[in-house]
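assembly run, all chains below
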Amino acid sequence: MVDHTIIETQDLTKVYGSGDASVTALNGVDLKISSGEFVAIMGPSGSGKSTLMHILGCLSRPTDGHYILDSQDVSNLDNKELAAIRNQKIGFVFQAYNLLPRTTALRNVMLPLIYDRRPEDHKTPEESEEVAREMLVKVGLADRMDHQPQELSGGQQQRVAVARALVNHPVMIIADEPTGNLDSHSGADIMNLMHEIHGQGATIVIVTHDPKIAAHTQRTIELRDGQIDKVTHNGHDARTNEPKVEDQWKRPK
Amino acid sequence: MKIREVARIAWDAILKNKIRSLLTMLGIIIGVAAVIMVVSISAGTEATISDQIQGLGSDLIFITPNFTRGGPESLTNQRGTGLVFTDAAAIDQQVPGVLGVTVEQGSSQNIAGNNVKLSSIDILGTTTDFPSVRGMKISDGNFFDQQAIDLKQKVAVLGSGLAQQLFGKSDPVGQYVTVGNTQLAVIGVFAPRGSVGGTDYDARLYLPITVVFEKFTPSEFARFLGDRVRLIYVKADPSKPLNDVILQIQLLLYNRHNVTASNPDFSITTQQDIITTQESTTAAFRSLLAWVAGVSLLVGGIGIMNIMLVSVTERTREIGIRQSVGATTDDIRIQFLAEAFLLSIVGGALGLIVGVVGAIFFGGVSGMRTVIVPSSVFLAFGSAALVGIFFGYYPANRAAQLDPIEALRYE
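ok done. output:
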């Protein structure tokens, strides 16, 4: 069931500052994620999980080591190239949704399409709108397309964010505490959505501090002090035997 | 990112906060409107003055005595004879290409007529060519002829305004007026002429110059000047080159006055000289005004820069979001530059409308002439656009240099 490796880090290191004031956020991380995997990266604050997420998401570069994404070494690309990678290969979902305020859900989902420079992917504004619409339908917001973030609930906003992350057919989704700002019901909704997307073949990396969220995934990579501490296989097959999300949210009797 | 998308994002951003956008544009609006209005008022005044000068009569040559060395007390020591009354006749007869010559000598006198007393009225002694040289028409009666001048007849022609003041609706021709201590018979009235260069032609009384010499030139002045005159107007034939006629007059007068070309006792000016001087003065003034108005454009640009800086700070998160989905440094920079540019263009357009409407309105209300000068409109609008780009660049750059991770964390 495991497809080819889509994400690989080799001795990934990130040092901030210099001399006495230097901080080693990541200290030689080696990991591999296969296409279609649902993975969690977990750790307490200071563990380096945010730093790892930023590098995996091509928002920053490693100080040492290599990051190979979809068979391309992106460790030393310049800002412009990294921006293109983020546009084409990565879809972010943030804890705070990060939608553009006073902008419709439709326009929000269209945002990555605006910055897509690939000539083969050129779309007219009408085509872009159509693609965005489809994505919103897919996440269950067909009747909310013209709503602005302030008119949407937290869960709905996060679904818009997921649609935005998917619109350019990225190689992976990176979700940073996606349920962190949501109540338990909305949180369950979003995790269901994640499972659905995963079931359709997406590679998803969730960064979280919450073991209950991590338990949704197939594999949990735990970080501590900038290094991989533990890897747990959570016993979920990619496409079968998904546990019911509601069970996990129930209070123990 | 296509231009269309850039324009749309910029336009959306401006519309999102209309009040702030309007306040930002205010400096540009005022600057552009000010330039247009100020230039139009100045150009209108120039045009009015130019028309007035043209209205003096075309192809006019003015000859004045040249008192370069010392004041009147040095007159008796002058080598030349100075400009005299007989020079006028000589020019008329001996210089080819001269259509008419008129001499003027004025005074200020009290006038009484029809039981109306007026004080300090300008009277002008002149010659028979006066109406044709100066482009004035007789509406009633006649102008005095050569005989009147030769015989020093005590006759007068009234300006239309003066006639109105003294005689109201009744016909002044055939009646008498007393100028100073001298009684004159009114033989004609001029049609209305208006004011030219500060002189109200309708408010004067016109009489033979010989009478002025005799009766109205102060005696001690007469001791020095005799038949000297202040001003000779020569109307040249437009089909002859003006410079030729001028040269001939100069040669004639050098001869008559016994002076050399390097040291003349007279000056010759043409109407064109006056216009040129006038134009350069007003052009300099207009330029100054435009610069001052331009300063407010500059202030408008600073306003744009400041508001854009605030806007960039407020939208730090938004910039981070855009970067996370693939906006490059250039994308962000262009986005904010486009916004600043659009603000200044729209502000410029609004300022243009305000300026043009304001100029027309001002002209209507004040009675002053205003001329919309297209070059000032283009200049003001173009400056506004440049100001937008120039002052928008720093904030746009600041936005573009933001680190995505920091930007996304911004509260």
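Chain A touches chain B at residues 54, 57, 59-60, 79-80, 83-84, 86-88, 92, 94, 98-103, 111-112, 114-116, 125, 164 (CB under 8 Å).

Residues 30 and 39 of chain A are 15 Å apart (CA to CA).

not gonna interpret more than that til we talk
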